[in-house]
């Protein structure tokens, strides 16, 4: 759906869906489906990795306004909409996950080459930027969930959203009547992925820069906005502590500056021999 809301020049025309239907048709299908279940009294949940397009593209504000005006039911109030944003750490793992997604194995483009030449604006890493965007561009509520804190308390993502955000009836940390006691299936898990062919010191320095970028949004973590609910707030203490040490001038002000800083680390220290596939694995999710 999000792709259908972009400028026509950005439409993924090679995908079967966009060869079969116009962007307007696709948006209308979503509008009708969501409206049908909403009119029947259901809560509606939809998720997409493409949601980060709203902060990556210049037309982001226009896209989200189209969601509000052309997709969601007309009788829905802002306080009936909750946007759930997942905050993922370690950020360097998230960056490596982006590399895996953007450079499929068969292309054989190693991490060093990708990070030292990419023009990617690293929008998927900007969880707090998304929170700030939705608070400024809409009248919706926003739930910010620290994945590290959630995992430490042994929550499954889907159960947490259902139990703690949607308010479904749950027994312990499981939706009542949904599971038979077995563990939920974790999809989108990739093993045997290539490891990054740069020194560990480079990855450590990159992680520091990636984390420091969030200092741009320290005002969100300090609270005060009634439309923002932060889950596992204590897990954000490290971010606040880091920002206090850096002050206002030492962290990257934009994602482009952040990208250029981590690119410099790679160029300065150079590359290693590619890591053997069997030596590295990572969970690719929440991109």
Provide a descriptive summary of the structure in words.
The chain has 287 residues and is mostly helical. It is 44% helix and 7% strand. It has 13 helices and 5 strands. It has helices spanning 16-20, 23-39, 53-56, 60-71, 91-102, 111-117, 127-137, 147-152, 157-165, 200-212, 218-221, 237-246, 255-269, and strands at residues 82-87, 141-146, 170-171, 174-175, 228-231. The protein has a 3-stranded parallel sheet. A hairpin with a 2-residue loop joins strand 3 (170-171) and strand 4. The longest helix is centred in the first third of the chain and has 17 residues, at 23-39. The radius of gyration is 20 Å and the shape is globular. Mean pLDDT is 88; it is low at 278-287.
Please describe the structure with a list of short key phrases separated by commas or semicolons.
287 residues, mainly alpha, 3-stranded parallel beta sheet, 7% strand, disordered C terminus
């Amino acid at each position: 759906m999000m792709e259908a809301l972009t400028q026509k020049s950005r439409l993924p025309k090679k995908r079967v869906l966009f060869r079969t239907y116009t962007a307007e048709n696709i948006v209308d299908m979503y509008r009708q489906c969501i409206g049908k279940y909403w009119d029947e009294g259901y809560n509606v949940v939809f998720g997409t990795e493409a949601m980060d397009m709203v902060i990556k593209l210049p037309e982001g504000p226009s896209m989200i306004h189209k969601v509000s005006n052309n997709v969601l039911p007309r009788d829905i109030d802002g306080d009936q909409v909750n946007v759930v944003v997942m905050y993922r750490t370690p950020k360097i793992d998230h960056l490596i996950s982006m590399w895996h997604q953007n450079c499929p194995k068969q292309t054989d483009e190693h991490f060093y080459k990708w990070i030292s030449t990419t023009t990617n604006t690293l929008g998927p890493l900007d969880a707090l930027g998304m929170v700030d965007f939705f608070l400024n561009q809409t009248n919706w509520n926003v739930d910010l969930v620290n994945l590290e804190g959630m995992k430490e308390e042994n929550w499954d993502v889907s159960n947490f959203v259902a139990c703690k955000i949607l308010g479904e009836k749950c027994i312990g940390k499981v939706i009542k009547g949904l599971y038979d006691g077995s563990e939920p299936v974790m999809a989108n898990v990739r093993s045997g992925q290539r490891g990054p062919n740069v020194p560990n010191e480079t990855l450590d320095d990159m992680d520091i820069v990636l984390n420091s970028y969030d200092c741009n949004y320290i005002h969100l973590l300090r609270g005060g906005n009634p439309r923002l609910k932060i889950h596992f707030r204590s897990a954000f203490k490290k971010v606040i502590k880091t920002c206090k040490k850096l002050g206002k001038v030492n962290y990257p002000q934009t994602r482009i500056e952040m990208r250029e800083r981590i690119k410099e680390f790679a160029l300065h220290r150079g590359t290693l021999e590619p890591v053997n596939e069997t030596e590295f694995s990572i969970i690719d999710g929440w991109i």
